[in-house]
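Reminder: ligand-aware prediction takes two inputs, not one.
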Amino acid sequence: MIPFNRPYVTGREFHYVSEAIEAGHLSGNGDFTRRCNGWLERTTGCAASLLTHSCTGALEMAVILSEIGPGDEVIMPSYTFVSTANAVVLRGGVPVFLDIRSDTLNIDETAIEAAITPRTKAIVVVHYAGVGCEMDAIMQIASRHELAVIEDAAQGLGATYRERPLGALGHLGAVSFHETKNVISGEGGALLVNEERHLDRAQVVHDKGTDRARFWRGEVDKYTWRDIGSSFLMSEINAAFLWAQLESAREITAARLRLWKRYHEAFAELELEDCVRRPTVPPHCRHNAHMYYLLVSRPELRDPLLEELDRRGVNSVFHYVPLHSSPAGRRFGRADSNLRVTDTVSSSIIRLPLWVGMGEQTVQRVAAHVYDALRDLGRGQAAGSGRPQTASA
Ligand SMILES: Cc1ncc(COP(=O)(O)O)c(C=O)c1O
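Here is what comes back for the chain with pyridoxal-5'-phosphate:
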């Protein structure tokens, strides 16, 4: 079986975890946390990074810092992971679900302005597959209407929009180090604080609502409860693991990009035959090869294709069930407009295995299986030879 994902380890993780154990500091905010935050600040240009136990936690922090409260509306794509909306609902806010662009599968920025009401407080953008949203237009809309912009950059580390790193373009950004992401710590995330005005409160919210960060810096002689917050910290064990990964982040992205390009070449013919659509990356976006997906032209073939690939030993998956039509999405949020693209994409997407170490030959094998499976499912006269020239079975 070719797995959908296999977490990549650099080989230095054990060494750094041992170092953390020897240092005798295993809770959060130790030396490895400082190294990881420093790396994130240097490479993204954010004002401050705070490691969290998950991107989910970082999104919850971002919503607290944006002062979203009961009844406040937050615009976001329906085509996203539950955490994007959950963070808002936990504060009593109302997610307002918008459609996505049919090319990048990111929020349709042209639909945002019409969805703004007097209750709108923020926009959460999701950089799907590590391809940047149209941030210039979005930031202009936000500034015209005095809205906060939170970037859900769970999939975006190492990618840029007009040369600027994802996660550092809005007011607050959230990244993920979950084992399915490019750079991992098992579970993990970071809040990127891009505006100085959020810095002090972010540290308080991060550490259970206390001013412990000021205490450690010697600015107060005891720490106390100051504000709402939670235990959002990442432990030093995870931070030590993460440090090994961040040291290799560039190489990991480069390796993923090579695999992504092989897929892209292999499926050119299938796209010409109109059987699938390949991902679109606008010229002003540098992506990070977080995922390779195909959009099957005949959605009724999507589920049989997944089954057929499974039968052939290829573990491919689909996502997301759109939030606007999920039980909780209907209960807590509202769909502002027609979500035609979202519905079509969610019923026609397949995501293929992509992990460092799978090798370009395995990519070719997966591609060959997709061609063969589609042929067997009757892609009709256009099936041709059924295989990409480059594929080796
Ligand atoms: C768009 C998006 N947001 C948030 C998350 C949540 O990340 P985490 O698992 O680190 O909480 C994910 C995870 O897959 C995601 O894809």
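The CA atoms of residues 131 and 287 lie 5 Å apart. The chain is about 40% helix and 15% strand. We will return to this case in the review session.
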